[in-house]
Design a protein that fits this description.
By secondary structure, the protein is of the alpha/beta class. It has nine helices and 16 strands. Strand 7, helix 2 and strand 8 form a beta-alpha-beta unit. The structure holds succinic acid. The site of succinic acid has 13 residues, from loops.
Length: 307
């Protein structure tokens, strides 16, 4: 069976993944944390925690709240900063078979361009995921992602600053995600990932206070899967670059739904917090499905449920 997938067909070198299952940013650390849990080299790719120019401590606690079939987070992009990432993490990744993609976030367009420049040609880094969709920080990031014009400008700035393949992660917290997707594709994105979390909140009724220290957070997990699936379906019909589906994928059948909706690859996120082996279980489930259905190439599944 062939599960390999080309995620940057318009890019000079391309970005060929051995299979379509990757981890979602922020749910799998830097990959190293899971190395002893299962053979992470079997994954299609690992997307690391959102990375900023300077290290960040993140938002005040509490930063996580469980909901019915979901999880609210308000982490606030806690991360070690790009310099430490290049010094401490990339050398390890360089010896890995699985490609690592660095998720980047900034407060200004220049931040994004500088991050892309710093990551360019660093051994161990195979691509960039541009995060214009984190709902948990005060400046930048999702501000760019909620508007087609600014989303396109960030994308073009990153593309100009790096020779790496670039994909852009979109927010569902916008009136029309399709117009944002079209704008980033026109600005040169090699692929598009969606969706990031839906903005939400929870209240501690005894304390009569918002439960999260940041008041609001981003909702992920199975609760958002139908929304994410529909958005992937819409975006896949509107752009000519690969789409990476994300949002509530916890089982192989979820991943297959996204692929049938038009996604070329999938990201597993919140499921990792329940079952750290989830991405591998999902990959094996896709393989079993293909075997049972007599499908020899994953490409033959992509978009098969589209009308
Ligand atoms: C966070 O760190 O607050 C979540 C990251 C994201 O939503 O992109």
């Amino acid at each position: 069976m062939n599960l390999s997938i080309q995620l940057a067909p318009k890019h000079r070198q391309g970005l060929l993944l051995a299979n379509p299952v990757m981890t979602a940013s922020g749910t799998f650390g830097y990959g190293t944390e899971y190395d002893h849990v299962f053979d992470i080299q079997r994954l299609g790719a690992i997307v690391c925690k959102g990375t900023t120019l300077e290290p960040r401590d993140g938002n005040p606690q509490p930063r996580l709240a469980e909901t019915s079939c979901g999880l609210l987070n308000s982490i606030g992009l806690q991360n070690i900063g790009v310099k430490a990432l290049i010094k401490e993490k990339a050398p390890l990744w360089a010896s890995w078979q699985v490609p690592v993609i660095v998720n980047i976030a900034g407060e200004t367009i220049d931040d994004y361009a500088q991050l892309a420049r710093e990551l360019d040609r660093v051994a161990g880094i195979s691509g960039i995921e541009v995060n214009i969709s984190c709902p948990n920080i005060k400046a930048g990031c999702v501000e760019f992602g909620a508007n087609p014009e600014s989303a396109g400008r960030v994308t073009a700035a990153v593309k100009n600053a790096t020779s790496l393949p670039v994909w852009v992660k979109l927010t569902p917290n916008t009136a029309d995600i399709v117009e944002i997707a079209v704008a980033v594709a026109e600005a040169g994105a090699d692929a598009i990932s969606l969706i990031n979390t839906l903005k939400g909140m929870a209240i501690d009724i005894t304390a009569r206070q918002p439960l999260l220290g940041n008041v609001t957070g981003g909702l992920s997990g199975p609760a958002i899967k139908p929304v994410a699936l529909h958005m992937v379906y819409e975006v896949a019909g509107a752009v000519d670059v690969p789409v990476i589906g994300c949002g509530g994928i916890t089982a192989a059948s979820d991943a297959i739904e996204f692929i049938m909706a038009g996604a070329s690859a999938v990201q597993v996120g919140t499921a990792n917090l329940i079952n750290p082996r989830a991405p591998l279980d999902i990959l094996e489930g896709i393989e079993q499905f293909m075997e049972k259905e007599g499908i020899e190439d994953i490409a033959d599944l992509i978009g098969t449920a589209r009308r």
